[in-house]
Amino acid sequence: MCDTCNRSYKHRESLYNHKTYECNVEPKFQCEYCKARFRRKDQFKVHVATKHRGVAFLNFYDNFLAGTIRQYICPKCSRSYMRRKHLNRHLKFECGKEPQFQCPHCPYRAKYKASLKSHVSLRHTYPNLLSQSKII
Question: What distance in Å separates the CA atoms of residue 126 and residue 59, rounded to the nearest whole number?
Fold first, then answer.
């Protein structure tokens, strides 16, 4: 239970976060587009990402957050990545594309070959089929 406001929490970590970021704490992060204020950086980033997409969001992201978090942004869907190779993989296999790897045993389709291999080994190998069977 918080000593200051008497709010109670189920988990100790939640109480710690409340005391550190919320209870009697002035907001530290202010949006330069709408002047909204936030106590936590993660809430601030979600706000900017959802409310200020487009050019304003990209400019803000480049000037303020670039280098600290994810600096490679998909031009089609605005997803962001820490590494250029991850953005390239996203553009090649994911963004606006249907899954291209079809399971030979069922209707499952995957966007990545590794995901399909994992699916087949978990769902369609002999020991797994026995354990899923209603006979045994």
Answer: 53
Label residues 96-131 b or e (16+ Cβ within 10 Å = b): eeeeebeeeeeebebbeeeebeebbeeeeeeeeeee
Q: Map tokens 């209603």 to a residue.
A: 134
Low-confidence stretches of the chain (pLDDT beneath 50): 55, 67, 133-136
Whether the Cβ atoms of residue 15 and residue 9 lie closer than 8 Å to each other: yes
Element housing 73 (H / E): strand 72-73
Q: Exposed, middle or buried: residue 87 (CB in 10 Å: 0-12, 13-18, 19+)?
A: buried
The size of the chain, in residues, is 136
How does pLDDT run across 55-80, given as a tens digit for each residue? 455 555 555 555 455 567 888 887 88
